[in-house]
From TrEMBL:
InterPro entries: Glyco_trans_2-like, Nucleotide-diphossugar_trans. SUPFAM superfamilies: Nucleotide-diphospho-sugar transferases (SSF53448). The keyword DNA damage does not apply. It is an enzyme of class 2 (transferase). Keywords: Glycosyltransferase, Transferase. Residues 12-131 form the Glycosyltransferase 2-like domain. It comes from the Bacteria. Its EC number is 2.4.-.-. This is Glycosyltransferase family 2 protein. The lineage of its organism: Bacteria, Pseudomonadati, Pseudomonadota, Betaproteobacteria, Burkholderiales. The keyword tRNA processing does not apply.
Length: 256
Protein backbone atom coordinates (compact mmCIF):
# COMPACT_ATOMS: atom_id res chain seq x y z
CA UNK A 1 0.00 0.00 0.00
CA UNK A 2 1.33 3.46 -0.92
CA UNK A 3 2.36 5.66 2.00
CA UNK A 4 0.91 9.17 1.57
CA UNK A 5 2.06 10.61 4.88
CA UNK A 6 4.61 12.80 3.09
CA UNK A 7 1.91 14.53 1.01
CA UNK A 8 0.86 17.86 2.47
CA UNK A 9 -2.78 17.88 3.56
CA UNK A 10 -5.33 20.55 2.70
CA UNK A 11 -6.17 21.29 6.37
CA UNK A 12 -4.14 21.38 9.56
CA UNK A 13 -6.51 21.38 12.53
CA UNK A 14 -4.86 22.43 15.79
CA UNK A 15 -6.54 21.33 19.03
CA UNK A 16 -5.14 22.59 22.32
CA UNK A 17 -5.91 20.31 25.27
CA UNK A 18 -5.45 20.22 29.00
CA UNK A 19 -7.50 17.72 31.00
CA UNK A 20 -10.12 17.85 28.25
CA UNK A 21 -11.49 14.29 28.42
CA UNK A 22 -15.02 15.46 29.29
CA UNK A 23 -15.51 17.31 25.97
CA UNK A 24 -12.80 16.12 23.57
CA UNK A 25 -14.82 13.18 22.21
CA UNK A 26 -17.28 15.59 20.54
CA UNK A 27 -14.39 17.52 18.99
CA UNK A 28 -12.81 14.37 17.57
CA UNK A 29 -16.09 12.93 16.30
CA UNK A 30 -16.93 16.14 14.43
CA UNK A 31 -13.62 15.98 12.56
CA UNK A 32 -14.04 12.28 11.78
CA UNK A 33 -17.49 12.98 10.29
CA UNK A 34 -16.20 15.58 7.81
CA UNK A 35 -16.81 14.74 4.17
CA UNK A 36 -13.38 16.25 3.46
CA UNK A 37 -10.80 14.02 5.12
CA UNK A 38 -7.67 15.64 3.66
CA UNK A 39 -6.66 16.59 7.18
CA UNK A 40 -3.84 16.39 9.68
CA UNK A 41 -4.85 16.86 13.32
CA UNK A 42 -2.28 18.43 15.62
CA UNK A 43 -2.84 18.13 19.36
CA UNK A 44 -1.00 20.52 21.67
CA UNK A 45 -1.32 19.21 25.22
CA UNK A 46 -0.44 21.12 28.37
CA UNK A 47 0.21 18.06 30.54
CA UNK A 48 -3.14 16.29 30.83
CA UNK A 49 -3.61 13.63 33.52
CA UNK A 50 -7.31 12.79 33.07
CA UNK A 51 -7.44 10.46 30.08
CA UNK A 52 -7.14 13.11 27.38
CA UNK A 53 -3.95 11.60 25.97
CA UNK A 54 -5.53 8.13 25.92
CA UNK A 55 -8.45 9.50 23.87
CA UNK A 56 -5.99 11.06 21.42
CA UNK A 57 -3.95 7.84 21.22
CA UNK A 58 -7.08 5.91 20.21
CA UNK A 59 -8.06 8.52 17.62
CA UNK A 60 -7.54 7.23 14.06
CA UNK A 61 -6.24 9.25 11.18
CA UNK A 62 -3.27 11.48 10.51
CA UNK A 63 -2.21 13.14 13.76
CA UNK A 64 0.67 14.60 15.69
CA UNK A 65 0.82 15.13 19.46
CA UNK A 66 2.91 17.83 21.12
CA UNK A 67 3.14 17.02 24.83
CA UNK A 68 3.75 19.14 27.94
CA UNK A 69 3.58 22.48 26.13
CA UNK A 70 3.53 25.26 28.72
CA UNK A 71 3.50 29.02 28.51
CA UNK A 72 -0.19 29.74 27.95
CA UNK A 73 -2.78 29.33 25.22
CA UNK A 74 -1.13 31.72 22.73
CA UNK A 75 2.10 29.76 22.84
CA UNK A 76 0.19 26.48 22.49
CA UNK A 77 -1.63 27.77 19.41
CA UNK A 78 1.65 29.00 17.91
CA UNK A 79 3.29 25.63 18.50
CA UNK A 80 0.45 24.07 16.56
CA UNK A 81 0.91 26.50 13.68
CA UNK A 82 4.65 25.80 13.56
CA UNK A 83 3.98 22.06 13.41
CA UNK A 84 1.36 22.42 10.66
CA UNK A 85 2.06 21.31 7.10
CA UNK A 86 -1.39 21.85 5.57
CA UNK A 87 -2.41 24.63 3.23
CA UNK A 88 -5.02 26.00 5.65
CA UNK A 89 -4.84 26.15 9.45
CA UNK A 90 -7.76 26.12 11.89
CA UNK A 91 -7.83 26.10 15.69
CA UNK A 92 -10.55 23.81 16.99
CA UNK A 93 -10.23 23.75 20.76
CA UNK A 94 -11.28 20.81 22.90
CA UNK A 95 -14.43 22.69 24.01
CA UNK A 96 -15.56 23.15 20.39
CA UNK A 97 -16.80 20.98 17.54
CA UNK A 98 -17.74 21.48 13.89
CA UNK A 99 -21.42 22.27 13.40
CA UNK A 100 -22.01 20.11 10.30
CA UNK A 101 -20.26 17.38 8.35
CA UNK A 102 -19.48 19.59 5.34
CA UNK A 103 -17.64 22.43 7.11
CA UNK A 104 -14.19 21.63 5.72
CA UNK A 105 -15.55 20.95 2.22
CA UNK A 106 -17.40 24.28 2.26
CA UNK A 107 -14.33 26.19 3.43
CA UNK A 108 -12.05 24.50 0.86
CA UNK A 109 -14.47 25.44 -1.91
CA UNK A 110 -14.56 29.06 -0.74
CA UNK A 111 -10.76 29.28 -0.65
CA UNK A 112 -10.54 27.82 -4.16
CA UNK A 113 -13.25 30.10 -5.57
CA UNK A 114 -12.18 33.41 -4.03
CA UNK A 115 -8.39 32.98 -3.70
CA UNK A 116 -8.31 34.67 -0.28
CA UNK A 117 -5.93 34.23 2.65
CA UNK A 118 -8.61 33.60 5.26
CA UNK A 119 -12.20 32.46 5.57
CA UNK A 120 -14.55 32.62 8.52
CA UNK A 121 -18.16 31.87 9.38
CA UNK A 122 -20.34 32.15 12.45
CA UNK A 123 -20.21 30.27 15.73
CA UNK A 124 -23.18 28.73 17.46
CA UNK A 125 -22.97 28.89 21.26
CA UNK A 126 -23.98 25.89 23.36
CA UNK A 127 -25.02 27.07 26.82
CA UNK A 128 -26.78 25.02 29.48
CA UNK A 129 -27.45 22.30 26.93
CA UNK A 130 -29.15 24.61 24.43
CA UNK A 131 -27.88 25.97 21.11
CA UNK A 132 -28.29 29.74 20.92
CA UNK A 133 -29.17 31.09 17.44
CA UNK A 134 -26.02 32.58 15.90
CA UNK A 135 -25.53 36.20 14.98
CA UNK A 136 -25.44 36.80 11.22
CA UNK A 137 -22.00 37.18 9.67
CA UNK A 138 -21.60 40.83 8.71
CA UNK A 139 -19.49 41.81 5.70
CA UNK A 140 -15.92 42.37 6.87
CA UNK A 141 -14.24 45.71 6.43
CA UNK A 142 -11.20 46.81 8.39
CA UNK A 143 -13.04 49.87 9.69
CA UNK A 144 -16.09 47.92 10.84
CA UNK A 145 -13.90 45.45 12.69
CA UNK A 146 -11.73 48.21 14.21
CA UNK A 147 -14.91 49.94 15.41
CA UNK A 148 -16.13 46.77 17.11
CA UNK A 149 -19.17 46.48 14.85
CA UNK A 150 -18.06 43.34 13.02
CA UNK A 151 -16.78 40.29 14.89
CA UNK A 152 -14.51 37.45 13.84
CA UNK A 153 -15.21 34.30 15.92
CA UNK A 154 -11.92 32.47 16.36
CA UNK A 155 -13.29 28.87 16.34
CA UNK A 156 -14.76 29.49 12.87
CA UNK A 157 -11.61 31.00 11.28
CA UNK A 158 -9.46 29.25 8.67
CA UNK A 159 -6.17 30.85 7.57
CA UNK A 160 -3.87 30.09 4.66
CA UNK A 161 -0.69 28.90 6.37
CA UNK A 162 1.53 31.13 4.23
CA UNK A 163 -0.28 34.20 5.64
CA UNK A 164 1.36 33.69 9.03
CA UNK A 165 4.69 34.35 7.34
CA UNK A 166 3.39 37.76 6.27
CA UNK A 167 1.76 38.98 9.49
CA UNK A 168 3.20 36.81 12.25
CA UNK A 169 1.44 34.54 14.71
CA UNK A 170 -0.33 35.07 18.05
CA UNK A 171 1.23 37.50 20.52
CA UNK A 172 2.31 35.20 23.35
CA UNK A 173 2.19 38.04 25.90
CA UNK A 174 -1.59 38.26 25.52
CA UNK A 175 -4.05 36.11 27.51
CA UNK A 176 -7.44 37.14 26.11
CA UNK A 177 -7.27 39.29 22.97
CA UNK A 178 -4.59 37.46 21.01
CA UNK A 179 -7.07 36.58 18.29
CA UNK A 180 -8.29 40.20 17.87
CA UNK A 181 -4.66 41.30 17.64
CA UNK A 182 -4.04 38.80 14.84
CA UNK A 183 -7.21 39.77 12.93
CA UNK A 184 -6.19 43.45 13.09
CA UNK A 185 -2.82 42.58 11.55
CA UNK A 186 -4.22 40.15 9.00
CA UNK A 187 -7.11 42.43 8.05
CA UNK A 188 -4.68 45.19 7.04
CA UNK A 189 -3.22 43.08 4.24
CA UNK A 190 -5.92 40.54 3.33
CA UNK A 191 -9.68 40.80 3.20
CA UNK A 192 -11.40 37.54 4.18
CA UNK A 193 -14.21 35.61 2.57
CA UNK A 194 -17.18 34.92 4.84
CA UNK A 195 -19.61 32.03 5.16
CA UNK A 196 -22.96 33.15 6.58
CA UNK A 197 -23.72 29.99 8.54
CA UNK A 198 -22.47 28.32 11.72
CA UNK A 199 -19.23 26.45 11.14
CA UNK A 200 -18.39 25.65 14.75
CA UNK A 201 -20.20 25.12 18.05
CA UNK A 202 -18.58 26.75 21.08
CA UNK A 203 -19.38 25.63 24.62
CA UNK A 204 -19.94 28.56 26.96
CA UNK A 205 -19.36 27.47 30.55
CA UNK A 206 -17.96 28.75 33.84
CA UNK A 207 -14.44 27.62 32.93
CA UNK A 208 -14.25 29.63 29.71
CA UNK A 209 -11.50 32.24 30.06
CA UNK A 210 -13.55 35.03 28.55
CA UNK A 211 -16.53 34.24 30.79
CA UNK A 212 -14.48 33.94 33.96
CA UNK A 213 -12.67 37.26 33.59
CA UNK A 214 -14.71 39.52 31.33
CA UNK A 215 -13.39 42.82 32.70
CA UNK A 216 -9.72 41.86 32.27
CA UNK A 217 -10.49 40.52 28.81
CA UNK A 218 -12.12 43.82 27.78
CA UNK A 219 -9.22 45.82 29.20
CA UNK A 220 -6.69 43.77 27.24
CA UNK A 221 -8.80 44.10 24.10
CA UNK A 222 -8.75 47.89 24.50
CA UNK A 223 -4.95 47.91 24.77
CA UNK A 224 -4.69 45.71 21.67
CA UNK A 225 -7.01 47.87 19.60
CA UNK A 226 -5.13 50.99 20.65
CA UNK A 227 -2.00 49.54 19.00
CA UNK A 228 -3.71 49.88 15.62
CA UNK A 229 -5.64 53.13 16.12
CA UNK A 230 -3.53 54.93 13.51
CA UNK A 231 -4.84 52.51 10.86
CA UNK A 232 -8.45 53.63 11.42
CA UNK A 233 -8.60 56.51 13.95
CA UNK A 234 -12.30 57.30 13.51
CA UNK A 235 -13.23 53.64 13.87
CA UNK A 236 -11.14 53.44 17.03
CA UNK A 237 -13.01 56.44 18.44
CA UNK A 238 -16.31 54.66 17.79
CA UNK A 239 -14.92 51.58 19.51
CA UNK A 240 -13.94 53.67 22.56
CA UNK A 241 -17.54 54.77 23.03
CA UNK A 242 -18.72 51.16 22.83
CA UNK A 243 -15.95 50.11 25.22
CA UNK A 244 -16.90 52.65 27.89
CA UNK A 245 -20.56 51.63 27.73
CA UNK A 246 -19.69 47.94 27.96
CA UNK A 247 -17.28 48.45 30.87
CA UNK A 248 -19.88 50.37 32.85
CA UNK A 249 -22.27 47.46 32.37
CA UNK A 250 -19.66 44.87 33.38
CA UNK A 251 -18.66 46.78 36.49
CA UNK A 252 -22.30 47.18 37.48
CA UNK A 253 -22.79 43.45 36.94
CA UNK A 254 -19.72 42.63 39.06
CA UNK A 255 -20.94 44.87 41.88
CA UNK A 256 -24.12 42.80 42.35
Amino acid sequence: MQNNTHIKPTFSIVTCTWNSAATLADTLASVQRQTCQDVEHIFVDGGSTDGTLELIAAYPGRKRVLRDVGGGISRAMNQGIEAATGEYVAHLHSDDYYATDDVLATVAERFARERVDWVFGSVQVLKDGELIPPYPVLPFTYRSFAAGRASVPHPAVFIRRSAFGRVGMFDEKLKYAMDIDLWLRLGQVARPATVDRPLTVFRDHAGSVSSANKIKARQEEFQVRRRYMSQAPLAFGIYCLRYMKRMRALRAEAAH
